Amino acid sequence: MKAINSGVALDKKDGALKPLERKKGLFYYIKADLILYLMLIIPVAYIVAFKYAPMYGIQIAFKDYNIFQGVSMSPWNDFATFKQIFSSTQFFQVVRNTLVLNGLDLIVGFPAPIILAILINELVWNKFKKVSQTILYLPHFLSWVIIGGIVAQLLSPTGMLNSVISHIGGEPLPFLTNKYAWVATYSLVGVWQNAGWGTILYLAAMTGIDKQLYEAADADGAGRFRKIWHITLPGIRPTIAILLILQLGNIMAINFDRPFNIQNNLVMDFGDVVSTYVYRVGIQSANFSVGAAVGLFQSVICLIFLVTSNFITRKLGENGIW
Fold it and tell me: Which residues cross the membrane (predicted)?
């Protein structure tokens, strides 16, 4: 194209005169979507204040931190903190427990909302579907303090369930006192609390599946299980892949409230995890350097799992997070 004046250009193909398009600057786009940019201020400020600013304290893991000297003035310790935690058998025990409990959540808890979402999606009676969804969502809004109290009242040796078992002549079951039974209880309680809420994303993904595919399957005589296997599951496969990557990325990160409110001294061999270890050693014992070092180790492992799972997912032909 050849410019013939300051505001008009000549198109070489058809010789038509067209106005020159001026390059739009940053302020043009901000002004065009000003309300959206203003709405972004609060979440961006939250991320900066509570996610990036605390990274300044990571250096505590490499120092002999003294609360009176502060972060910057505390002396460096030549990785002594990491040497201390890696030489501790208790640290490797809590790492093992964290991996075992999160692994069970992955095996038992991850498929649960998928199965539940498919069952809800297949319901024909809409009123029953809405009531079922509401009932299944409710446990998500209970804090783990409340859930811990419910579990203790129901499953303790003198709890309601064991009282019923004893009343009918059976032996009380050690739901919370045997470490292996406690692991099963921990996993099932987690499924009960999270499965209903986890169906939301899968149900939303199912609404995006083309209804004509189901109509074509009906015309071919396919039953419900065939349609689920060949249409529904492939339709939500990208959502499953992304959520699986995110859960694998948190394989070393475990919520503090859940194990802390369900564990007891009889099951600490399996109930003591990284988050409770950091709380007990780093905060209660005021050994902040150890707490920061364990937290940094935990974050690095999670990052490795996240990058690796995303890489494998993309190699298998699915869309990853990036």
Answer: 26-49, 106-124, 136-155, 180-204, 236-256, 288-307
